[in-house]
Amino acid sequence: MSTVVEPMPPARILIVDDEVDNRELLQIILNWSGFVTQTAASGEEALIRGAAEPPDLILVDLMMPNMDGCQLIASFRQKPETQHIPVIMLSAMNDSAIRKRALAAGADAYITKPIDRSELCEQVRGMLSSKRNANQPEGASASPLVDPLTRQASPSASGASDT
Asked: Are 154 and 144 in contact (CB under 8 A)?
């Protein structure tokens, strides 16, 4: 027996990075994976875009001029309309002190560059799934993740296992 799953609209992801090549690469990866993306070239631009149309998830580069990623995340966490949005910090710096600083500022995850496409998509899907589950009324079951290509529930979302 097959379960019919109503596809949810694709998640909207805000990509914040001052480097255009990084923004474009992340856009390609995420769009190909079925997500809708919006970009911002600075922390200031991200705050405006995030307030105007809060995304489902935010990817933030650590090293940016004027307002670094940690300052941006702290600003997002102070605003009611963006304080609960999952944030993934991206950085070429693989240093535990910087990772701790990012998490203390409010990042939910930290991924080092160069970006591994599989790791990024796994983190994004996991955070979106957690957010969706947290937004469900008590006792309600969350909708399974839907594969954007087949429009069917993914096996990992339904709790199916190969073991």
From this structure: yes
pLDDT at 161: 39
**Average pLDDT, stretch 46-61?**
96
Domain ranges of the chain: 12-133
3-state secondary structure the chain: CCCCCCCCCCCEEEEECCCHHHHHHHHHHHHHCCCEEEEECCHHHHHHHHHHCCCCEEEEECCCCCCCHHHHHHHHHHCCCCCCCCEEEEECCCCHHHHHHHHHHCCCEEEECCCCHHHHHHHHHHHHHHHHHHCCCCCCCCCCCECCCCCCECHHHHCCCCC
Q: In the structure encoding, which two tokens stand for residue 98, read together?
A: 């910087």
Share of the chain above pLDDT 90, in %: 72
Q: What is d(CA 25, CA 129) in angstroms, rounded to the nearest whole number? A: 23
CATH 2.40.10.340 is held by the domain 12-133: no
Pair 27, 15: CB distance under 8 Å: yes
pLDDT tens-digit readout, 56-92 = 999 999 999 999 999 999 999 999 999 999 999 999 9
